[in-house]
Design goal:
Its cofactor is [4Fe-4S] cluster; Mo-bis(molybdopterin guanine dinucleotide). Residues 3-59 form the 4Fe-4S Mo/W bis-MGD-type domain. It comes from Aurantiacibacter atlanticus. Keywords: 4Fe-4S, Iron, Iron-sulfur, Metal-binding, Molybdenum, Nitrate assimilation, Oxidoreductase. The chain is an alpha/beta fold. It folds into four domains: 4-54, Phosphorylase Kinase, domain 1 (2-Layer Sandwich), CATH 3.30.200.210; 65-132 and 322-484, Rossmann fold (3-Layer(aba) Sandwich); 134-318, 3-Layer(aba) Sandwich (Dimethylsulfoxide Reductase, domain 2); 562-678, Beta Barrel (Barwin-like endoglucanases). The protein has 24 helices and 26 strands. The strands form six sheets. Strands 5-4-16-15-14-6-7 form a seven-stranded mixed β-sheet, sandwiched between helices. A six-stranded mixed β-barrel has the order 21-25-22-24-23-26. Strands 10-9-8-12-13 form a five-stranded parallel β-sheet. A hairpin with a 4-residue loop joins strand 23 (611-615) and strand 24. Helix 3 (106-120) runs parallel beside helix 20. The protein is globular and about 70 Å long. The termini are far apart. The structure holds iron/sulfur cluster (SF4). Iron/sulfur cluster (SF4) binds next to helix 1 and helix 7.
Length: 679
């Protein structure tokens, strides 16, 4: 019998769809899209639609565990606190690290960041969002002076041209794709896909640009040069709102790209003739050793043509996870403090004063790849991992697993008992999952929505923010962590955004600082910064946006190797701990496929439907072979989802090099030199 109706938000991708839930007290749940939510207006994709099949308790961690022993919360929290205290006393604050997740709610992120940076005094707190969109963050900071997405979903409805760069939108952000398709039906919006693969999205586009991996910078620079030649730059926008690097525009060459000239010309015609242009970029752009420059190449074109801050126009970074944006806002990345503040003396002083602490970390900490290197090297001796599975999802995952096996203090907070990472933990802390926890998330268009609890907490599971506060109290910081509810945390975070305004940033939730518990409970989705956040100037000292001089990177592939690109399947999420519970979702792609052009497959002795290994210098794993005419010659594709826990094959994380973008620290999950051979 249905007895509760709740409005909440989907726990999967960065579209952040609203969901109406009806639930009984026996975890029977029915799901519908929330017609009032501005992100989806009632639409859901297959993952959202089948959420009800994933709320069972299979595999859940119900009780705190030290080693293989079930213990009470007091014992577990005492143990975590004493391990952390001893580590800091013996080796200093930088021997402690936290590794968080875009699955956490903003309130969880806020208190974890406050404890690590503010009271332990370590900058070593990073997140799996580093693997997802750190390059877009860095590109925003370089161009705008602040990590702000300058678009809204309504711009997709109002655009005449949508360019999708490195995004299989129809599979990975399906409801955003549905909006784009609607715009095509309604106003004839043209869709261009820039992607080495002819993905499902590319097959439905008006034009597919099959560029070589990491060919984006050359393409967007050439497009900018072509628009200069055609006299299409917006001179007054450039003069009034942009800072130009000396000589950059003059040096650009419209022929310096790797695209068929006829296809390039078709692209240029569409760009020339459609001023309502959105360029939506995602992991295909970000997960690259030159991802930040790609983001800036895209932003440069929009700035130079004045196609930003207007209806239906702008460079639009789509985040992968449901709350990567919230994490960015409260300082979940190692290279920011909180509320978009950096580590200048003035910003540090403001944060230390607000938190009333004398222990604030002295500077940025280690980004994800370097953080696990430091664990491996024995420099980090305590790591607390929350809501993520780095033993599978990090590049060179075998190395990360080895690092965790060596580390004397591995704490894992998770909803699942035996993830590949949890198996390496000394202490496991049972966290609340979707439908059990309360808090807020921020989606890709800066819209903050509530996630709400509608199911009883299983076993002794606790909210992540509460677990962190309980440990902080044991470390002697109870007064600074005396939050009684997620609403309490949200009030403090909102109040803290006053500092952002004081330091010239746009992030401002100060009008939420006095929100009552009741109002928090009833909170409707709202967008911070409004539809045109840079209406009154950019967040740089001059108020002008920076056009950033970027040049194409050298090709990464070597010799006779194939280039391995990795990505998602339509119906799976991350390491499948949730989506793997649904038989219907798993039916879409039941096993991990190595997709390869038939001629390449035959040349390497593979057969369609047979088994093969992919091998890189980082590792080796087995896959089912799928010959695919849409796969470019010389490139292969493999999915990211499979783990030791669920199959042992298709371990793509083992294959990816830990090579990173030098600006953002984001690892390159694409364009990895690889070999294939029959199994
Ligand atoms: Fe959930 Fe994303 Fe699908 Fe919306 S598009 S239902 S947020 S997975």
């Amino acid at each position: 019998m249905r007895d509760t109706k709740t409005k909440t938000t989907c726990p999967y991708c960065g579209v952040g769809c609203g969901i109406d839930v009806e639930s009984s007290n026996k975890r029977q749940v029915s799901i519908e899209g929330d017609r009032q939510h501005p992100a989806n207006h009632g639409r859901l994709c297959s993952k959202g639609t089948h959420l009800a099949e994933t709320v069972g308790l299979e595999g859940r961690l119900h009780y705190p565990m030290i080693g293989q022993r079930t213990v009470g919360w007091d014992s577990a929290l005492d143990d975590v606190a004493s391990r952390m205290r001893d580590t800091v006393e013996q080796y200093g604050p930088d021997s402690v690290a936290f590794y968080l997740s875009g699955q956490l709610l903003t309130e969880d992120y806020y208190v974890a960041n406050k404890l690590a940076k503010g009271f332990v005094g370590t900058g070593n707190i990073d997140t799996n969002s580093r693997l997802c969109m750190a390059s877009a963050v860095a590109a925003h900071n370089r161009a705008f002076g602040e990590d702000v997405v300058p678009c809204s979903y309504a711009d997709l409805d109002e655009a005449d041209l949508v360019i999708l760069v490195g995004s299989n939108t129809a599979w990975c952000h399906p409801v955003a794709w549905q909006r784009i398709e609607k715009a095509r039906e309604r106003r004839g919006t043209k869709i261009i896909v820039v992607d080495p693969r002819r993905t499902e999205t590319a097959a439905m586009a008006d034009l597919h640009i099959p560029l070589p991996p990491d060919g984006d910078i050359a393409l967007f620079n050439a497009l900018l040069a072509e628009m200069i030649d055609r006299g299409r730059l917006d001179g007054s926008f450039l003069d009034d709102h942009c800072t130009l690097p000396e000589g950059f525009l003059d040096a650009l060459d419209p022929a310096a790209h790797d695209i068929d000239p006829a296809v390039f010309n078709e692209l240029a015609e569409l760009v020339d003739s459609n001023s309502r242009m959105v360029t939506l970029f995602s992991q295909g752009a970000n997960q690259s050793v030159c991802g930040t420059d790609k983001g800036n190449a895209i932003i440069n074109l929009h700035l130079a043509m004045g196609r930003i801050g207007r209806p239906g126009a702008g460079p639009f970074s789509m985040t992968g996870q449901p709350n990567a944006m919230g994490g960015r806002e409260v300082g979940g990345l190692a290279n920011i403090l909180a509320c978009h503040l950096g580590f200048s003396e003035a910003e540090r002083a403001s944060v230390a004063d607000f938190w009333q602490t004398s222990r604030l970390c002295s500077g940025p900490g280690l980004k994800a790849v370097d953080l696990f290197r430091a664990v491996h090297a024995g420099k980090v001796k305590f790591v607390w991992i929350m809501a993520t599975n780095p033993a599978v999802s990090m590049p060179d995952a075998g190395f990360v697993r080895e690092a965790l096996a060596r580390c004397p203090n591995v704490i894992v907070s998770d909803i699942i008992a035996d993830t590949d990472t949890a198996k390496l933990a000394h202490v496991r802390l049972p966290a609340l999952g979707w439908g059990e926890k309360d808090g807020t998330v921020t989606n890709s268009e800066r819209c903050i929505s509530r996630q709400r609890a509608f199911m009883a907490r299983p076993g002794k599971a606790r909210a992540d923010w509460k677990i962190v506060c309980d440990v902080a109290a044991r470390l002697g910081h109870g007064q600074s962590f005396d939050f009684e509810s997620p609403a309490d945390v949200f009030r403090e975070y909102s109040e803290m955004t006053v500092l952002a305004t004081r330091h010239g940033k746009l992030l401002d939730l100060s009008n939420q600082a006095g929100i009552t518990d009741k109002a928090y409970d009833r909170m409707q989705p709202f967008q911070w910064g409004g539809a045109r956040p840079f209406e009154h100037g950019f967040s740089t000292a001059s108020g002008k946006a920076n056009i950033v001089a970027v040049s194409p990177s050298k090709a990464r592939g070597a010799g006779p190797s194939l280039a391995l690109n990795t990505g998602r399947y339509r119906d799976q999420w991350h390491t499948m701990t949730r989506t793997g519970l649904s038989a219907r979702l798993s039916a879409h792609r039941p096993e991990p496929l190595l997709e390869i052009a038939p001629a390449d497959g035959e040349a390497h002795g593979l057969s369609d439907g047979g088994l093969a290994h992919i091998e890189t210098t980082a590792g080796r794993s087995a896959y089912r072979v799928a010959f695919n005419e849409d796969q470019r010659a010389g490139e292969i594709f493999a999915p990211m989802h499979w783990t030791d826990a669920n199959s042992g094959a298709g371990r793509t994380g083992l294959l990816v090099h830990p090579e990173c973008d030098p600006v953002s620290g984001q690892p390159g999950f694409k364009n990895v030199p690889a070999q294939v051979a029959p199994y």
